[in-house]
Amino acid sequence: MTYSLVTGGVMMLGATQVAANTQYVDPFIGTGGDGHTFPGAVVPFGMVQLSPDTDSVFRGIDPQPEIYKRCAGYHYDDTTIVGFSHTHFSGTGHSDLGDLLMMPITGEVKLEPGKADNPDEGYRSRFSHDNETAKPGYYQVWLQDYKVNAELTATTRVGMHKYTFKEHDKGSVLMDLTHSIYNFKNKVIWSDVRVIDDRTILAYRATNGWANNRQMYFAIEFSKPFSDIELINLDNTRYRCNGCLTEGNGKKPSTIVNYKIPEAAGKAIKVVADFEGLKGEPLMVKVGISAVSKSNALENLKTEIPHWNFDKVVKQADETWHKSLDKFEVEGSLSEKRQFFTSVYHALQAPSVYQDVNGQYRGVDGEIHQAKDHTHYTLFSLWDTYRALHPLLTYIEPDKVSDMISSMLDHYQQSHDKMLPIWSFQAHETWTMIGYHAVSVIADAYLKGIRDFDVELAKKAMIDTANHPHYDAIPEYKQYGYVPLDVLPESTSITLEYAYDDYTIGQFFTALGDKKTAAEYYERATYYKNVFDPEVRFMRGRMKDGSWNPDFDPQEAKYMGAFTEGNSYQYSFYVPQDVHGLIKLKGGDKKFVERLDELFETELSYEKIKEHEDIAGLIGQYAHGNEPSHHIAYLYNYAGEPWRTQARIRQIMDTLSSDKPDGLAGNDDVGQMSAWYIFSAMGFYPVSPGDLTYALGAPQLPKISLALANNKRFTVVAKGLSKKNKFVKEVRLNGKKLERSYITHDDIMGGGKLEFTMSAKPNKSFGQSLSARPPSMSNPVNNNFLK
């Protein structure tokens, strides 16, 4: 089986042509609106994300709204590009990275990026989407002002540029070590650059951004020698080398300060390399990155791309992607395939590799470590991704899950606080968001039989994290059975998320046979009841003295309030571990369903949520653009009315998803939004990762088939699916009629066929009985562990 660039994404198998699923990926989906994705070149879980940046950061006048739109460095609405940097977040609600910006230039070289509304004053260039393309592992754009066609591709640790100068024989490449994707004026702590020879440069910078003192090293190699190079420092000291790297060339160096081997150091370094003879052949650049050293960056470069064959790297990236994407076989419309496979593409970008080819990486203790028995990963946006992304990876990339957990355990061992990661990236803990959701990821994987990590260490790490004396009021949580609002803001959300995490710890220790420890955490998992006010039937902030927060509005979401990026309407349904217990608190099935309908049908005023950009994608109070809502549509199943879940999933899909640049309802959040789409398109969702069950919805494509690691295939078929036929008439698993409104992990791993027969009318008897409903702590009829 070989891949041909000529066939445009078609696999040749003998005389048969089989379309590779890479053709359905559109990296521009999510780059508009508030999706916060980037369109550039990346391979699955790549350390390098080489992508265009359409704006630079600091503007001096409240830049925050503009920065928020460009958390990934690029926004589809923009019409100018400042260059191409090598590290980016995909879909986050926070910005950082943007390491080593490069820009090909013709004519006068300006040293500042200028402003988007006046590109001529800086080194930025206009561009048009009509002359811009992207596919997995490849990006291209025509820079109008410089008449340069820029192409990008990448391996795991190396980015490769190809610049074709259409009208100029002379040109330059600007390398800006001051560039960043973060609202912080003096981000660079220190940087340096050293010219090794007339093709090679080594560089370094340390930055204070979302992560403080984050270090990155670069090895930069050009395909042809530069005719001149200039190193510019913050104080405008210029180190120029006109021919000084060539012995006996007879040229007199034109310098302000001249070194035999030029180098510069300071808080703001920029480099301009000049080239001649550019009309004859493209100029190519390879950039290896490392968090350890310049020599490692150079080794990464030499190892992963030892040649100058740009098309070969593009082909390798494409082949890597199709191996991942082609685990799925999908039937549906072109738009549906584009949405589905782009979701898979986004879901496989993080966590990202964070070690060099020699196994070295920088730990959260700042020291250099050697990975021996696993690949070290970074970028754990766990408040987002524990919900669906990590459960998804247990099926489509199970061989990497143990390494990701081992990386979390590395973090635990190396951290001063002896904590599992909360929201960490590139050897730094940001302490962003709430909960200790690494325990959910570990428990869910272990219960599914993914256990190639240090289980004894995981036990200790989970217990230490859940009982940390200084993290987010854990002592008070244990003392009062909830986190008091007069101790810590966002206390109600924190209480609810701790309770869920504690449930997964209970599941983990139950599986290990430690019933005593499990019982302790199952008890803590019931603490959600302590922040439920029965008078108003909402979750509500509570004080140390037991009184309820008098300043209560269930629709309001505000900073320093009782909830995290959400309101009480949304968080009053966050008890994934014990939905049946929550139903009882709310007054039974009927009242629970009424409150769910109320959530979807009560308009949410912008004034109530204006402090939170992340609360987006609204259907009433439901906010699909933010994680606390992601499981809610599936909760009708627990009250015996799965037909309502089926209708809500279709409503969400039809109104909040598309294959356009603004096709995501909110931040993709490192793949969580995409993972929600993948599960929901298949017709089921992990409401409570760690309980090994999936609540059924309704499939959104006629057929989706997944190749499993055990050489089996799990296929979902939706017979009669149409815009009208959105309800499930009946479900069969391997030919046997399924009465329950959930499936299990074993059902999936057993392979076979899950067949839905769709109808325009709801089947209101399906999934109605208690034994047919998804399990939770207060439904012992079908719960695996609590009996």
Quickly describe the structure.
The chain has 787 residues and is an alpha+beta fold. Mean pLDDT is 91; it is low at 1-18, 57-65 and 246-259.
Shape: globular
Percent range for β-strand residues: 15-25%
CATH architecture name of the largest domain:
Distorted Sandwich
CATH topology of the largest domain: Beta-galactosidase, Chain A, domain 5
| Poorly predicted residue ranges | 1-18, 57-65, 246-259
Spatial extent as radius of gyration:
27 Å
Q: Give the C-level CATH assignment of the largest domain.
A: Mainly Beta
Count of beta strands: 41
Strand line-up in the sheet with most strands: 9-10-11-12-21-16-15-14-19
Number of H/I helices: 19
Going by helix content, strand content and strand pairing, the class is alpha+beta
Please tell me the total number of domains. Answer: 4
- Distance from first to last alpha carbon: 52 Å
Biggest sheet statistics: 9 strands, antiparallel
Considering DSSP H and I runs of 4 or more, what fraction of the residues is helical?
10-25%
- The overall pLDDT average reads 91
SSE blueprint and pairings:
Blueprint: E1 2-4, E2 10-13, E3 16-19, E4 51-53, H1 64-69, E5 80-81, E6 83-85, E7 101-105, E8 125-126, E9 132-135, E10 138-143, E11 148-154, E12 158-165, E13 171-176, E14 188-195, E15 200-207, E16 214-222, E17 228-232, E18 238-241, E19 263-266, E20 270-275, E21 283-290, H2 294-304, H3 310-325, E22 328-331, H4 334-347, E23 352-353, E24 360-362, E25 368-370, E26 377-378, E27 380-381, H5 382-385, H6 389-396, H7 398-414, E28 423-425, E29 428-429, H8 438-447, H9 455-466, H10 474-480, H11 491-511, H12 515-524, E30 532-533, E31 538-539, H13 568-571, H14 579-585, H15 589-601, H16 606-609, E32 618-619, E33 622-623, H17 642-656, H18 672-682, E34 684-685, E35 693-696, E36 703-707, E37 713-719, E38 727-733, E39 736-738, E40 742-744, H19 745-749, E41 752-759
Helix pairs in contact: 4-18, 6-7, 7-8, 8-11, 9-11, 11-12
GO cellular component, one term: cytosol
Protein name: Putative alpha-1,2-mannosidase
Domain Glycosyl hydrolase family 92 N-terminal: 24-290
